Fold:
Amino acid sequence: MKISRRAKIILGAFTGLVLVFIYLPLSVVVINSFNPSRTFSWPPTSLSTVWWTRVFHSDGVIPALLTSLKAGLGATIISVILGSCIAFAVARYDFFAKNTISLLVVLPIALPGIVTGIALNSAFNAVLQPLGIGLGLATVIIGHATFCIVIVYNNLLARLRRMGNSLEEASSDLGASTFQTFAYVTFPIIRSALVAGGLLAFALSFDEIVVTTFTSGASVQTLPQWIFNNLFRPNQAPIVNVVATMMLVAFILPVWLSQRLSEGSAVGSRL
Amino acid sequence: MFWLVVAYLGSLATMFASAFWTVDSFTGNIVRHFNFGNFQILFTQSVYRVIAVRSLTVAVLVTLFDALIAIPIAFFMAKVLSQRLRNFAIVIIILPLWASYLVKTYAWRTMFSDGGVLVWLLKPFHINPPGYGLFATTLTLAYLWLPYMILPIYAGLERLPDSLLEASSDLGASAGKTFRQVIIPIIYPSIIAGSLFTFSLTLGDYIVVKIVGGKSQLMANVVYDNVGTAGNLPFAAAAALFPIATILGYLYFVRRSGALENF
Structure:
């Protein structure tokens, strides 16, 4: 089928319309963060950075940001370590229940977040509470790690499968020790996939709210939780706009970076 | 790694077991006594039936809407654009869709708000946009899950060789006929794969409807409210089985129809 000129124009116009649909709501948030009016009468009559300076004095934003960063870092470290262990095991060895393991890794992201959240919540209550450990940052990190592992795992497994065994075999045939092979052959090849997976895992953790709600308890609050709690308060709306804009940038940057590092395959890896 | 698997599976198992337990209405403690009481309430009280039907309707509408948008866009990206433009288009279209879930939902809240952007945009056409409610919920959910539909369809179309399309038109098929008889059958597994995501994500969501849904509730809200305010974990677990059972049922149906075999 030769796609007719008319069809191309129609398809292009449709894609353009969808682009507007995609970008319009996001740009409204960004523009509103510069809107000095408290009530956001649209369109804004003037632009100012007044809320951007106030955000640093606003109640709870900075602690929530720090909590989110800590949770993201913790979850990323755990998921990079565990995710690469599982990816190596699945890619390089045959073992009992291999298929089951690879299914189990995907399960936390395949099931609705609320199911994972409740399950973890009841497990933490049943196991940790008798030990005197309450819900807090540590349980948030564990909760986030359960679904971040799959991101690292998917990215790394794809790279390991593409790379195959031959390079490593060649290296050991040429007399390299296991450690040398890893340091000079394997690691340089998987490095970018690891970084890409780690960045995506961080972004996902930074953005997560459902599992967080069920694992954070009353003492800690992440940035998404802060937004959710202040969303319905009209007098907090200006600050919410600023924080939302900050989150957009904070999320898009790592995803864009990881997209570059993984040669364009990263955005699909959440699937 | 082992402890994580055990912890996760153990907690899932505990949760499903607790669906058959009850809460002592006096002390608030969980009574570990096997019974079907929770399911009886779920099936007999009409409010839950209404919520279940509403959740399914929203999930179907979201899926249809996403498929209708995703197919032309994926086709445009895979078959019309040149390789260079294609990579650029993927980034441009997909990147913002991966941006923060909460921020995007919040963005739609500002769009639909009273005196918000939609009111302002539609004023010249004398249309009064609906405020917060099920329409806003459906649109926001469709917006959120759009990449889950675009990416598989795009991947499916990229694998479809141009020569098949040419052969179809050489044999005298019109563009519409080629679309129906060549393109759709080939991307059918992709659409199914995408719909699995849109379906299950919609059924598991309670935040969007809280933010833009006004007073309406979906099944996941029943789960959430029973964990949080009511403290009735067994009932929440029973309600959580609804989305899981629906998705598993859908998966089974899809597998039987063989749609995923070539995927």
